[in-house]
Design brief:
- The longest helix is centred in the last third of the chain and has 18 residues.
- With about 150 residues, this protein is of the alpha/beta class.
- It is globular, with a radius of gyration of 14 Å.
- It has five helices and six strands, in the order E-E-H-E-H-E-H-E-H-H-E.
- It has a four-stranded parallel beta sheet.
Length: about 150
Amino acid sequence: MRLVPGALTGLGLFADIDAAADRVVFVCSANSARSQLAEALWNTVSPVPAQSAGTHPADRVAPGAIATAARHGLDLTGAVPRLVDGIDMEGAFIVTVCDRAHEEYPGGTAHWSVPDPVRTGTDAAFEAAFADLRRRIDQLAPRIHR
């Protein structure tokens, strides 16, 4: 017996969330792919602004993240990885998007375990991360308000 992928999708993942927030902050370890994509996606679907940051920021945003964003009409060309300690978290709804960030930054409001596309480096890995983030953001965004 095994779990069918997607079988539990939509079964109350965010049913208990109805939150007011000044902004949403997506945190991952390097702030080079997942959190950058999440920030860009969020800002297209919600009036609540989003930021992203990392517990150990990379030197630059991953080229695969920039290319994936561009394929979906988003622009990450000017994005720069930032340290989470430099972000004002007061009044923020904080989402960690990787397990390492969740362990290192336990102050998050929600945690999403999104596989790191940088490790594989393929277009397919970046597209899978993008699709996972889009699905989660589409479910969460209507539940966060100012």
